[in-house]
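pinging the channel bc i need a second pair of eyes. not urgent but kinda urgent?? the chain im working w is below, pasted from the shared doc
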Amino acid sequence: MVSEEHILEENMSPFKPDETPVVIRAFAVFLLAGMLEVGGGFGVWKWFREGSSLGWGLLGMGVLALYGIAAALSPLEFGRAYAAYGGVFVVLSIAWGMAFDHFRPDVRDWTGAVLILSGIVFMVWGRR
């Protein structure tokens, strides 16, 4: 079980105690935050780097604001949540690039992603 010092006070979390294991809650928040951050960043990238319409940039900025809110839903404290989330961000960035920008990762990309995911497992599951 995760000690109380590593979890936000229950009245600050949108989840009820013991409703879902902390690891599952954290991972769900990481996925939501990652999709918002990568998607929002992609919109800004399209506008700023590739000359797409300002609408892309504004949409991206709005989605990035939602990312900040979603990341705050993590049941972990700030430092651990953002450190572990960073790894999820890397993997989602690779997946987003493949799906929407014709990115083709090589062996080094996949090896790095596996190493990063291993670190997340160690950081989050190590608290049990």
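so The longest helix spans residues 22-50. and The chain has a mean pLDDT of 85. — does that match what u expected or am i reading it wrong
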